[in-house]
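chain below, 173 aa
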Amino acid sequence: MIEMRVAGIALDAVSRSPIVLLKDGSERRALPIYISQDQARSIIGALENQKPTRPLTHDLMVNLLTTWDVDLKKIIIHSLQDNTFYAVLCCAQGDQIREIDCRPSDAISLALRMDSPIWVMEEVLADASIPVDRDADEEERQAFRDFLDNVSPETLIKQARLSSDSFEAESDS
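prediction:
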């Protein structure tokens, strides 16, 4: 799993639909998730730390969880099926841990309000993320190509043996 953060809300250029944009810690990958206008307003409200005069739906959920001493440990966006993302809330109450099925947009709204981490499974990122820093990605690919161009099979074999010997010495200690 990769920890992500909310980078903001954007609008799709063609459909004008809101998108919540999650970014990884290195700012190299972004995960766009299409959401509704109401979900976008809720996420923006949490990002801007807005306090409504009366609790809205996500604020009510936070109040319920807090009142019942339920800790939102994290949210996990765990799969993508037929262009639909799936998420769970990982909640703890005492020594009981529960995972609760949830739409990613609702999970994100709650995570922002409760200062809980947002995690995404690697498979989801592999299927749906977009590169943010193409130049850095290309530099990394080029550095790897240069390494491969300048390394001999003998050097790799020697390095593998040294690593294996070092591992065995540590295991014997």
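The helical segments are 37-47, 57-67, 104-114, 122-128, 134-150, 153-172. The mean pLDDT is 87.
thats it, cya
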